[in-house]
Design goal:
The protein is mostly helical. Helix content is about 70%, strand content about 0%. It is built from 16 helices and two strands. It has a two-stranded antiparallel ribbon with strand order 1-2. A hairpin with a 2-residue loop joins strand 1 and strand 2. Helix 1 packs antiparallel against helix 5, helix 6 runs antiparallel to helix 13 and helix 10 packs across helix 14.
Length: about 450
């Protein structure tokens, strides 16, 4: 059998980003999340609940599901990562969690438009979400094998860019041909869903996003499994007791590794805040701006295009300047965007009153979406590159398991703070204010992060 070239391995590895991105783009943020919010809140309203209470209760249910799955991922990721390093095998784990991804997303077809089976929907969404997150952890741990430290930033950025372009294409396909508007029953360009093959009255066009995401992933992963092979690795052996001992030893030494400790803490806060922006962006547009799903889709397409382009640009900047300055710039940008949103309502911007019916808030929110996409794409790509600089070459999966732990252990924090701030202020707009605090804390912790990581300290 001919040996697979390093270039083809890199392309195969990047195909995972292409394959998995629709779970975030289509399901979590721009199509299924808003659909769930719309249908389930309508169910509660029909049942006699006040409109604002129904919206708040629905958002709380969605946030709780993400919190529970986040905790499950957080506390099992380092253990599974250590087990994978001990056994020397990562591909079998990727196969297993890929199956969960496909099954969980496909079953979302049965998300009824009356919202009556929302508990079933939450469970299967959580299964797919767990599959996506764990498959990502094991795939990310392969990044150090693809190039030298000064190359992984470009590879990581190109991978994220490829993933976001996949998300853009998937969004175009869904909104142009499949997703039905709740009022008109038509797609973005006025067609019947899938040329009339799907029943708009039963919201089959929108519900099809689950099977579409599953099929997209299954087909795209053919290239990953065909081109990505594991080379010889040091195998320490696998035992449950040994795995927990080694993991405990790693965790106990973290405070002594100041740069890694600070980086994991910083990424904990800025990734939690970024996930808060992503998770509640579409729901915010649905509940606060009262956008229809089609308009949310246009917003999503523009954001994803921005993310794809700037992830690619960020990869080159990472290679030239290193990941730390890129991360700092992205966090500062996101702080600025959040401040703009906080000081904007449908009738005024930074205290300046607008004319009735002004489109300026909508236009500004679209610009904010593009900036969030750009900064978020760059931030995620450079974060992955920075983690490589802090990982032990002999145990990369465990390192990325800790990276997942730092990103998921407080996955409840942003939703909880947003819910609390919204209750206190009585304003969905001011409810996002805790995100600014989280980003600022992350920025402060970056002061203790060495630009070259722990592997190449000057």
């Amino acid at each position: 059998m001919a040996e697979i070239s390093s270039k083809k391995k890199i392309w195969g590895w990047m195909f995972f980003d292409w394959a998995s991105q629709p779970y975030n783009t289509l399901l979590l943020t721009f199509i299924f999340g808003p659909y769930f919010a719309q249908t389930v809140s309508d169910m509660f309203i029909t049942g006699g609940m006040e409109v604002e209470a129904a919206k708040a209760h629905t958002q709380s249910i969605w946030a709780t599901m993400l919190w529970i799955t986040g905790l499950m991922i957080a506390f099992s990721a380092p253990v599974l990562g250590a087990a994978a390093d001990g056994s020397g095998q990562r591909l079998p784990w990727i196969w297993f969690f890929s199956v969960l991804y496909v099954v969980g997303s496909f079953l979302l077809w049965w998300a009824y438009p009356d919202g009556s089976n929302y508990m079933f929907v939450l469970i299967v969404f959580g299964i797919g979400f767990i599959g996506m997150e764990f498959a990502t952890i094991f795939t990310n741990s392969m990044l150090p094998d693809l190039g030298e430290d000064d190359e992984v930033g470009k590879i990581s950025g190109s991978g994220f860019a490829m993933g976001y372009w996949g998300g853009v294409i998937a969004l175009f396909i869904m909104f142009l041909l499949v997703v039905d508007d709740a009022k008109t029953g038509k797609t973005l360009i006025g067609l019947d869903p899938l040329f009339g093959l799907l029943d708009a009255g039963a919201r089959e066009g929108t519900r099809a996003v689950g099977p579409f995401t599953a099929i997209w992933f299954a087909i795209s992963m053919i290239f990953f499994f065909a081109w990505v092979k594991e080379g010889p690795r040091h195998v320490s052996g696998f035992s449950i007791g040994g795995t927990f001992r080694e993991l405990g030893s790693t965790l106990s030494k973290l405070p002594q590794r100041s740069s890694l400790f600070a980086y994991l803490g910083s990424s904990l806060f800025y990734r939690d805040a970024l996930n808060g922006v992503y998770t509640f962006g579409g729901i915010y547009a649905t509940f606060v701006l009262e956008w229809e799903l089609i308009l949310v889709g246009v917003f999503g397409i523009l954001s994803a295009i921005s993310a794809a382009f700037f992830s690619w640009i960020g990869g080159f900047a990472d290679r030239k300047y290193g990941p730390k300055p890129i991360i700092v710039l992205a966090v500062l940008t996101l702080i600025g965007v959040c401040i703009v949103i906080l000081n904007m309502t449908p009738t005024q911007i930074f205290g300046v009153q607008l004319e009735d019916g002004s489109l300026l808030p909508t236009q500004i929110f679209f610009v904010c979406g593009g900036v969030i996409g750009a900064a978020g794409g760059i931030l995620q790509a450079s974060s992955r590159s920075m983690m490589v600089r802090h990982s032990d070459p002999a145990r990369p999966t465990e390192a990325f398991g800790l990276y997942a732990l730092s990103g998921k252990a407080t996955a409840f924090l942003a939703p909880m703070l947003i819910a609390f701030a919204t209750q206190i202020t009585g304003s969905a707009r001011l409810g996002v204010s805790p995100l600014v605090v989280l980003f600022v804390i992350a920025l402060v912790l970056l002061l203790w992060v060495h630009p070259k990581g722990e592997n190449q300290k000057a």
